[in-house]
Amino acid sequence: MSKRGLSNDEKKKRMLDFFHEKQDFFQLKDVEKLCSQEKGITVQTIKDVLMSLVDDGLVESEKIGTSIYYWSLPSHALNKRQDAISKIENKLREETDKNTYYKEMLKNYENSQDDEQKRVSLLQEYKSLVDQRQVLLKDVDLFKENDPKIFQNTLNSIDETKKACNQWIENIFSLKSWLKNKFKVDQNVINKQFEIPDDLDYIE
């Protein structure tokens, strides 16, 4: 009897496990029957889950005559995950480099003659950086369920990116303090003038 209440990610993982355990070729009707019986996936959802795995490149499909066959080998899925990890790690390195660049820019702010324009630009870049980091974290969460060891290096990179983001935020706070002391301006006025969020805080 099929189990209920499985999330889509869990269904995909169970179906991928099914292909890797069998290491054989199956038609849709066979996948529906066996995944329902052995993996507890409801029959009504199996086709959609299978198509999702095909779209992700984790399951191969080929039309032979009038029939379509599906299969997935562990080595193929591993290569796909490693490719995805490599792309994420490259993106994280890019974001870390951006953090370093903007940190240096902030150090030079006190001597700049057009602080307002640069601060606005940097703040926008900071917001974009945080948004991209959240997307990367979600991607890592999806992959790490399949093979935590492979993703450990990626998680370490995320930790370094978090540290860099927090250093960047520390520089913003330092700059606000400098403006407040030099021009005797209230912090709320500085936030409003340069569109700095009132709830700007370190990333946990």
UniProtKB/TrEMBL annotation:
Cytoplasm as UniProt keyword: no
Pfam families in the cross-refs: LZ3wCH, Mnd1
Protein's cellular compartments: Nucleus
MF GO annotations: double-stranded DNA binding
Top-rank lineage group of the source organism: Eukaryota
Domain Mnd1 HTH per the UniProt entry, residue ranges: 15-74
GO terms for cellular component: nucleus
Biological processes annotated in GO: reciprocal meiotic recombination
UniProt keyword Nucleus, yes or no: yes
Keywords on record: Coiled coil, Nucleus
All residue ranges annotated as the Leucine zipper with capping helix domain in the record: 158-203
Main location: nucleus
Homology family: Belongs to the MND1 family.
Function of the protein: Required for proper homologous chromosome pairing and efficient cross-over and intragenic recombination during meiosis.
Name of protein: Meiotic nuclear division protein 1 homolog
Organism: Brachionus plicatilis
